[in-house]
Amino acid sequence: MVLIQILVATFVISLIAFVGVLTFILKEEWLKKALLILVALSSGALLGGAFLHLIPEAVSELGGSLSIFLYLLLGFCLFFILEQFLHWRHQHDETHSVKPFTYLILVSDSLHNFIDGLVIAASFVVSYPVGIATTLAVALHEIPQELDDFGALVYGGFGRKRALAFNYVSAITAIVGGVTGYFAASVMKASIVYLLPFAAGNFIYIAAADLIPEIKHAVNIRRSIIHFCVFLAGIGVMLLVKFIH
């Protein structure tokens, strides 16, 4: 039953790769506005998922051990290092040709999706409500992320159809990560719980370092208020999921 839940959740996550279709439909101006709204929503959802679901569940399972916060910091720092490396490669590759950068995007996205799959699997193994909350937080983050990746691939020389296809191939690694996480749980047993604070560190880093800075660049107070309200709505969604379950 748990494996089926993981497969369904990661399959849904993989389908988000096709969100790039919106670029065929929406005007660029509307797409940019919608993207910032989605960024605000996903930043709130990621923080809500970390502080309202993942960390409390880890504390509940492990009894407030210091190791929880060490794994949280590990998740935060690992993604900081990974992002810095990818940023350096981005700058390095652009001076020569764009094409290596587009493939780097696919490789890094595949790795990120694989980790998402592992985290979703660990969450469902711990409990169904935590699995649902984690999947929702990941999904809300993946929508603007996949739009951004799609745009980068098109900018790098991919045709739109080819970019959609390659983007989905990289997204399938979420399913692979989910299956891997499920079978790893039988070996790791109680240790699988440590993936929860690790994932929380990941969520906090993405929200604080990548997403929130984007919505702080609003050109007027009205748009800033809208973004903040949507950010709070993202937290509210995670709070609602907690009360429902």
3D shape = globular
Number of helices: 10
Q: Which sequence of SSEs, written as H and E, runs from N to C?
A: HHHHHHHHHH
Radius of gyration: 18 Å
Largest sheet: none
Query: How many E-type strands?
Result: 0
Helix content: over 70%
Uncertain regions spanning at least 5 consecutive residues:
88-98
> In percent terms, what proportion of residues is strand?
under 5%
User: Regarding quaternary structure, how should these chains be classified?
Assistant: single chain
| Helix-and-strand structural type | mainly alpha
- Separation of the first and last Cα atoms: 18 Å
Average pLDDT: 84
Description:
There is one protein chain. With 245 residues, the chain is mainly α. The chain has a domain at 2-9 and 78-211. The chain is 86% helix and 0% strand. It has helices at 2-15, 22-25, 28-62, 66-94, 99-126, 128-155, 160-171, 173-188, 195-215, 221-244. Helix 1 runs antiparallel to helix 8, helix 5 packs antiparallel against helix 6 (128-155) and helix 5 (99-126) crosses helix 8. The longest helix is centred in the first third of the chain and has 35 residues, at 28-62. 45% of the residues are buried.
Summarize, please.
This protein has helices at 2-15, 22-25, 28-62, 66-94, 99-126, 128-155, 160-171, 173-188, 195-215, 221-244. By secondary structure, it is an all-alpha fold.
